[in-house]
Amino acid sequence: MNVTLRQLRAFVAVARTGSFTLAAESLFITQSALSGLIKELEQALGLRLFDRSTRRLQLSGAGADLYAHIEKILLDLDNVIEEVGKLKALQRGLVRVAVPQLMACTLMPGLMSAFRNDYPQVQLRLVDSLVEQVMNRVFAGEVDFGLGPERAPNSDIEAVQLFELPFMAALPPHHRLASKRTLRWTDLAGNPLITLQGQFAERLATDLGAAKRSVTLEPANEVAFMSTALSMVAAGLGLTVCIPYAAEMVRQYGLVLRPVVDPVVPRGFYVFRRRGRTLSPAAQRFHDFICEELGQHRPFERALREVQQAGLAC
After folding, report:
1. Which pLDDT belongs to residue 39?
2. Which percentage of the chain shows pLDDT scores above 70?
3. What's the pTM value of the predicted model, to 2 decimals?
4. Contact (Cβ atoms closer than 8 angstroms) between residue 241 and residue 195
């Protein structure tokens, strides 16, 4: 049985109008073409769908039984096509993004608000996570893509760098080191250092070792979230290092940022996607929007100026 969509639409049009002439006009085809479609459908089904006479055209018993089912099929199909159009036009859609907690409460709200201004009918779902969980959420399919610092490579995950920024020290404004425009890693060595758990301290120590500086970092505390580290710094329990995009939160805790040099240690941040997975139109547009915004360092201009004013090349 080879039934086509054109045949089904022809059948419904004739059933609704009770006229081959009116049905053909509604479908923008000739009456002979319409008659041919109905004939082909009846042959494919092996049923007579209409009883014809010189005065009257009406559905046969079999045609009446099939009409409601076929009409529903076409209505459902039209709804699907309409939804596809909305998805393509970004008039609807759901985007899920995993980001570390610090990025979730500093960078992302502004980016989400700007995107929503252009695409108000697209839902954005932010999944704030531990840094180590971002890539795992992407791999598990819990989110469309993720953002975060570089992590150990995964053959199933595509990582594209968005930006690279240097580490800065966060400390109380009354701390003895706060009077300096820039700090050296050796300056931090004599203070309790609060860092994030996982690969944060390991990668930082590796970067410093690669720079051939005699600096040994031994964290006094390792915490899950940067907000915890900043709160502890505000309480006088030590110092921490962070990326310039944390500047807004640093100020909320009444702390100051100072560039750390000798060496300047940059940290790269990436967008993570599952290889071979095509994003929905909404997810692809938000992905591209983030790459455009973060790739141009727009959210970091103030913090970068602080670094540049200190005479650093980032």
Report:
1. 93
2. 89
3. 0.70
4. yes
